[in-house]
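Morning - thiamine diphosphate inputs below, output right after.
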Amino acid sequence: MKKLMTGNEAFAYGAYLSGVRVAAAYPGTPSSEILDNFSRYPGVFAEWSPNEKVSLDVAIGAAYAGTRAMCSMKHVGLNVAADSLFYAVYTGLKSGLVIVCADDPDMHSSQNEQDNRNYAKFAKCPMLEPSDSEEAKRFVGLALEMSEAFDTPVLVRSVTRLSHSSTPVEVTAEGPPPPPPAEPPLYERNAPKFVMVPSNARRRHPVVEERIKALAAHAESMPINYIEPGDDKIGIVSAGVNYHYAKEVFPHATFLKLGMVYPLPEKLIREFAARAETVLVVEELDPFLEEQLRLMGIPARGKDVFPMLGEFSPSLIRRCAVKAGLVAAPETPPEIKTGLERPIRPPMLCPGCGHRALFHVLGEAGVLVTGDIGCYTLGWAPPISAMHTTGCMGASIGVAHGIDKAGVKDDVVAVLGDSTFLHSGVHPLIDVLYNKGVTTTIISDNNATAMTGFQEHPGTGKTVQNQTTAAVDPEKLARGIGFNKVDVCDPFDIDRMAEILQDHLQSGEPSVIISRHPCALNTKEKYTPPVIDPELCINCGLCLDIGCSPLVQEEDYVRIDTLLCNGCGLCVKVCPNEAIIKQ
Amino acid sequence: MTKIDFLMAGVGGQGTILASNILAEVGLQLGYDVKKAEVHGMAQRGGQVDSHVRWGEHVHSPLVEENSVDYLIGFEMLEAARFPHFMKQGSVAVVNDYRINPPLVNLGKARYPSKEEIESLLLARAGKVLWVDGTGIAKELGNPAMVGVVLLGFLSTLVGGDQEAWLAVIERMVPPKFVDLNKEAFAAGRKAAG
Ligand SMILES: Cc1ncc(C[n+]2csc(CCOP(=O)(O)OP(=O)(O)O)c2C)c(N)n1
């Protein structure tokens, strides 16, 4: 029986079917639903870890102990977890470990467009790349078998278009089987294998090199790497979802479909190249396969035809292939007169969002704001325009401290969310204190990982499996580290927030402000919308500067769209003429 | 079995995703190979949400190609107007006669195109533009969020396929207490198609 599943649902299903019993992750688009889905299967342990490195260590520990394990993350998560990936490749494991990692070509919701296939080569870790949900399910199982057969973690690569597309998956009509009764695993102590001091690591490195050679030999006969014979004028090498795009554009060409993108089957590739007149590599982002083919001496084409940036699609592949003379141009369709203005819908902070109230105060104060990653990053955009740097998760505090130590005279504050703070904000906070900084850090705490879909985190008091647990309190944490100046304030109390801000900035002490208001979209809390008196409205536009979508500019006054309004009352507070009246 | 490519375009919160899930399931029920992709940025609410649904004997790409869509289903007028280049000659655009202003329009800094402008833009490629008062009908039934099912009812008269197959999928995919209401919405959509 076939069922439509997203790639992420299929990864979770495949992991459950193949006996994964421990999974850990930190949310990140487009990977978050893998753990969400997995956590709902019976008899499994799943956790949202504070960050990706912790999640990978947890999965490694379970696999050391003899339990199959999965770790999932978005592409940049592997930057955070890279240290752990590298040691696990050296130590190997006892049971299978699969790391599902999702790239985001075109940066639909990411800060960069890195191609994580490079990590496979860098860490000397095999990587599989499924092309649809059925393969996502199966490849997780294959990865676990390979992990055990070769004693290595195995990476499985996804991309946004696989994780978030739905395609049919073969399922059993009666649903997934119940988990077999689990015996507690016996931990086998084997320090020379698992303690990576130099003397042991030196013995493990040759194992890693031999293993990757053995995997390359194995790749020659793996059924997931195969040739699809066709017209040999063009031989296409492709993997993942790009294989399907290429099939649309070159339906009759000979294909080499690679299920494993590292290490590569050299003999199979040579055999394929020998039959094709032109070898064309269709791959998004980096010329990862193309370069390896060229090292084999195969004059492959690829990035001379297709871009290095962004996401591919059948439309894009056809356009490029036509330009390169590789396929015939389709009949020219009737022209579309462009020029009609079609205003875009940029992402905006939601009505009722506490981040907006905080940024209003920061904007009024004119402080330099080093930012971080989350919904609150939207504070950079006009008309709010109150955030001046954003790099990666946890960067805000260190960057503020550095700007301060460089001697800049502006008042600088770091702003980051609660989930981001617990992900990677604690260490830089320690740094500010230890190295005699004066940075004021503002944790904009909405009690959720809102950006990626309201996941729980160590501060919310709930686990992914909906159990009540300890909630880390950022105020106590900051005081415990040694901060003396810590205040908590609801940002909608804008006068008090402004006072606290000035007090902190003038104190000359390192300090922390917790700006606390629960995410309005998550709690679904709504209040009666205020009313604007058109007689009193002087049309000054100050309320529009808070960037709240229900405020609509009419001919000579501003109106509130009551369907969209959350009733938070921020506009009431910013109106200089008391024309917006709370109900 | 001929291929049918659908493109659904709407605004976050309008129910585009549920509607495209239903449409994909109906295809599977009718015996097609089916793939579906969602294209949306980081907006939780109020941003653009587009869904690609493909039915065929054997479907490769989950993304539809430009110049090859058979049915464009616009949940919102301006959103429909973003996709004339995806339409193939003779294709049909079913557009909900409903407008949601983007922020720049609300701020008085951009103009919302007129219905006539949108229609003529789409007709550069599409064979027909059919306007439906989907949100109006759904509101009358008590919930504007059912606009998706109204539009699916309308669409079902064009695409064909046993009505029961559509209804069975709707029954399976909407929350139990809303099943009857959604069936009404589907019927109202069919009626609107005349
Ligand atoms: C290393 C890394 N992991 C995950 C992400 C994805 N991501 C972006 S923001 C965010 C969390 C934001 O939560 P929070 O800090 O609480 O802010 P909110 O969105 O709730 O305002 C996550 C998980 C990322 N960009 N980088």
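Note: Residues 226-323 of chain A form a domain with the Rossmann fold fold (CATH 3.40.50.920).

O.
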